[in-house]
Design brief:
343 residues; 2 domains; 10 strands; binds S-adenosylmethionine; SET domain-containing protein; SET_dom; SET_domain_protein
């Protein structure tokens, strides 16, 4: 009874949820409060479009308590009051303004279209999007990458159909599809209790294996690890075969292998439940580019047959015939990649 009263009086009840929003805020066992669907939300549907309470145009390291205090002082009283409704995982007050901002802000920086480099440092405090919990098997996404222009709103979308009553959660990091449970928890600094994180379950073990494989495959495709560097961890190498690793780093991976690696990544992410429409659009380039580059006629025919299949696993199964086959475009492509990378 006491718990129920506490929930009814909770400051989060005063947060300004749009009237037509498909979610409500309420306690989420083991995760403070969270957002829960109040009706069925279809894959691809917009969940929330939100303006920041305020923004700070500085690198993260320079956002101090003083900087935040000055920003808050400029806010009208009603908006300032909103900020002080925030609680550390729905319970006590935050230790500092800095901590409150870190837990409730999103990077809003836009990117250069060609280099992918961030154009500026812009962080926004979002009262509602920050109430959504994290999941390593999410059902929604906040695609923050905007090329050119400035981001004025943060938007979240359903990445699969969400049932009424289901918690809506997105992944707090973009590269978790390539990270094992242990690596994810180290980065999150809390122990996530989603399906992919339940220790000792067959799904969790398989999930770790799939995500490690995806990371290795992306190394073979790009010649670098997630941090943009070559990996040198002899105790736990991503690519155990030194010759293969060297081939990746010098862009000598044959076209047929590139095509298969691209398809394998799509299939693994699909089986992991992570292949949402945003990710599929981005990663399918790693399939379509090798597909378009084949020059040897017999390879072109198999690749066409593969891509005519219904799903990624079907395409992969057909494409496997190409494994180990050379293509007339191999040498020219290696030279092109080498010159583009400067390696
Ligand atoms: C941005 S807040 C999310 C909303 C928060 N639960 C609240 O009540 O305000 C992030 C914090 O929520 C908790 N959290 C989020 N996702 C979680 C998860 N999957 N498992 C456990 N705790 C989680 C962690 O304490 C994390 O630091």
């Amino acid at each position: 009874m006491k718990r129920r009263t506490m929930a009814l009086d909770h400051p989060y009840r005063q947060l300004p949820i749009p009237t037509n929003a498909p979610f409500e805020l309420k306690p989420s066992p083991g995760r403070g409060w969270g957002a829960f669907a109040t009706r069925r939300i279809e894959r691809g549907a917009l969940i929330l479009s939100e303006e920041p309470l305020f923004t700070i145009r500085k690198p993260h390291a320079e956002i101090t308590n003083e900087v935040l205090l000055r920003a808050l002082q400029k806010l009208p009283a009603s908006r300032k009051r909103m900020f002080f409704l925030l609680r550390d995982n729905a319970s006590g007050a935050f230790q500092s303004l800095k901590h409150a901002f870190a837990e409730n802000s999103f990077n809003m920086a836009s990117e250069d279209h060609t280099t992918g480099r961030q154009l500026d440092c812009l962080h926004g405090l979002f009262l509602l999007h920050s109430r959504f919990n994290h999941s390593c098997s999410p059902n929604s996404k906040v695609p923050v990458t905007v090329t050119g222009g400035e981001i004025t709103h943060l938007q979240s979308f359903a990445t699969r159909d969400i049932a009424p009553g289901e918690e809506i959660a997105f992944s707090y990091a973009a590269d978790f599809g390539c990270r094992t449970r242990e690596e994810r928890h180290r980065e999150l600094r809390f122990v996530c209790n989603c399906d992919a994180c339940q220790p000792g379950t067959p799904f969790q073990e398989l999930s770790d294996m799939r995500r490690r494989l995806v990371r290795g495959l992306q190394y073979l495709q790009t010649g670098v690890d997630l941090d943009g560097r070559r990996q040198d961890a002899p105790d736990r190498p991503l690519i155990a075969d030194p010759q293969l690793k060297r081939a990746a780093e010098t862009f000598r991976i044959p076209l047929s292998s590139r095509f298969i690696y691209g398809l394998l990544v799509m299939s693994l992410l699909e089986q992991e439940g992570l292949l949402d429409d945003f990710l599929a659009e981005r990663l399918s380039r790693n399939v379509w580019v090798p597909f378009a580059a084949f020059e040897t006629e017999s390879n072109v025919q198999v690749a066409k047959l593969a891509m005519a299949q219904q799903d990624w696993l079907g395409r992969l199964c057909v494409a496997f015939q190409l494994y180990g086959r050379a293509d007339a475009a191999d040498q020219a492509l290696a030279t092109l990649f080498q010159s583009l990378s400067g390696r």
